[in-house]
Design brief:
single chain, 294 residues, alpha/beta, Trna Endonuclease, Chain: A, domain 1, 3 domains, 14 helices
């Protein structure tokens, strides 16, 4: 599963999430969590915490779901690029590894981090953070969000996913934070059950009532299954877009509903990176609808 970009979404969703997932990174006052593109180097820094108060340090965060032997060096480059853009500000770096297996333990940084907790580079293992959270706050919504990632057994995940989904829907979170958690949860769940249809996933989560045992239902499905699959996919994507971007225009809704199922699935993955309605317009412009056969 793709994990790093989803974790960036959670890091930027809420100050508490940022503090928990980074094992204690706390920012005084308001801040922005943003991605920075360095066009001259064709380089993107996905996680930059930019506090509004100038005396607070800026943090460049690298999330690592795969082993990368040069990740320590890349973090140092990121810190330098951020510092160049924000002259006079202190810049620190944080490596967030999914587990210790992804850490190449590059010297001299590996030993220096162990010796000096005040070093401007920190290292955190997400697996350890989540285990500690499970012991201390077993009902925390982050654990429900990470459920599709944490449970290896698919049948166990199938049984527990509806409860986790309802927990996220009812958790005392702001609408924006709840939206981020549900987006990440749904995306990871779809990746884990990639052999199921969208309708089967929705039934699993309790969004639809399973009526397959009725004869009338079977007859309707036999005639309309392709249409239902498209409509169900389109409605889910529109709901996710509205949660992420706000109210869509009638033209935007019509363009999304006109996309074929394959492009709707691609859009469902791409929208996790959208930050403004213009991103949707740009994506649709880059993915024209295939022309129908004469």
């Amino acid at each position: 599963m793709h994990t790093d970009k989803h974790i960036y979404l959670l890091l930027g969703a809420d100050p508490e999430f940022l503090g928990l997932l980074t094992d204690g990174l706390r920012i005084a006052g308001p801040y922005d969590f943003e991605a920075i593109d360095v066009k001259a180097l064709e380089r993107r820094i996905d996680g930059v915490v930019l506090p509004a108060q100038p005396e607070e340090p800026i943090w460049a965060i690298e999330v690592q779901a795969q082993r990368d032997p040069v990740i320590y060096h890349r973090l140092l480059i990121d810190m330098g690029l951020v510092g160049e853009r924000h002259l006079g500000r202190e810049v620190r770096g944080l490596l967030l590894f999914i587990s210790p297996a992804q850490d190449p333990r590059t010297e001299p940084w590996h030993s220096a981090i162990l010796r000096d907790p005040q070093l401007p580079i920190r290292r955190v293992y997400l697996s350890d953070v989540l285990k500690r959270l499970e012991r201390t706050q077993p009902d925390h919504p982050l654990l429900a969000t990470f459920l599709p990632y944490l449970i290896d057994d698919r049948e166990q995940l199938r049984d527990q996913a509806p409860l986790a989904y309802r927990h996220l829907q009812q958790a005392p979170l702001s609408d924006t934070v709840r939206q981020r958690c549900l987006e990440v949860f749904q995306s990871w769940l779809l990746a884990r059950f990639d052999d199921l249809t969208l309708k089967e996933i929705l039934i699993m989560l309790g969004e639809l009532t399973p009526l397959e045992q009725t004869r009338a239902y079977r007859e309707i499905v036999a005639e309309n299954q392709p249409i239902w699959r498209h409509e169900g996919e389109a409605q889910l994507i529109l709901r996710q877009l509205q949660r992420r971007l706000g109210t869509l225009t009638a033209a935007q809704r019509a363009r999304v509903q006109a996309l074929p199922v394959e492009q709707l699935e691609d859009l469902g993955e791409a929208l996790l990176d959208f930050t403004a309605p213009a991103d949707l317009d740009a994506w649709i412009g880059d993915h024209p609808q295939p022309s129908k056969a004469e």
